[in-house]
Design goal:
The protein has about 110 residues and is an all-alpha fold. The protein has 4 helices and no strands.
Length: about 110
Amino acid sequence: MIPRQFQAGGALLGAAIIYASFGLLIRILSEMYGDFAQVTARFLLAAAILLVIRAVTKKSLKLSRREFLFSSLIGVSFASLIILFTLGIVAEKIATIIFVFYAASIVSSLF
């Protein structure tokens, strides 16, 4: 059995590697696919992963109307963030966009 600390560390390392590769993948794939096609493909991949997790855990999710509207608002804002991030990566230098993305995330989380 792997200790819990190593499981958490491995999960964080894997997530960091995947997240760090997004900028490079967006730049490379922009020659083959359009910006919105890339965003759509990523959302479909995330939806498929969530459906598999839901099928494995077999938990039903009951949300009130207010929770559903709040979750929908977060989903729409995240979708617009991903679209703008993809457009920014294609239009500007990767380092600049990633710095602004993290700086904005840190400042907004402070609020």
